[in-house]
Amino acid sequence: MALEALRVNRMRSVLTMFGVVIGVLAVVILVAVGTGAKDAVEKEISGLGTNIILVVPGRLTVGAAPTQSKLNLADVAYVRRVVGDPAKVTVSLQSGETVRVGGTEAFVTVVGTDQNLTNIFDRPLDKGRHLSGTDVDTRRRVAVLGSEVADKLFGDLDPIGRQLTISGARFRVVGVYAKIGQTFGVSRDQEVHIPVTTAQRLLGIARVNGIAVGASGPDEIEPLQSRVVAALTDRYPGEKFSAVTQTQLLGTIGSVLGMLTGVLAAIAGISLLVGGVGVSNIMLVSVRERTREIGLRKALGARQRDVLTQFLIEAVLLTTIGGVIGILLGVGGALAIQALTPVPASVTWWSVALAFGVSAAVGVFFGVAPARRAGRLDPVIALRAE
Amino acid sequence: MTAAAPDAALEAVDLTRRYQLDGIAVEALRGVSLRIGRGEFVAIIGPSGSGKSTLMHLLGCLDRPTSGRLRVNGVEMSQLSDTQLAELRNKTIGFVFQSFHLLARTTALENVALPLVYRGVGKAERRSRARAALEAVGLGHRMEHRPSQMSGGEQQRVAIARALVGEPKVLLADEPTGNLDTRNGAEVMAILDRLNSDSGVAVVLVTHEPEVAGHARRQIHVRDGLIELDTGAQESAESEQRDGGGAG
Question: 20 to 30 A from A133, CA-CA: which of A14, A228, B88, B141?
Answer without folding.
Answer: A228
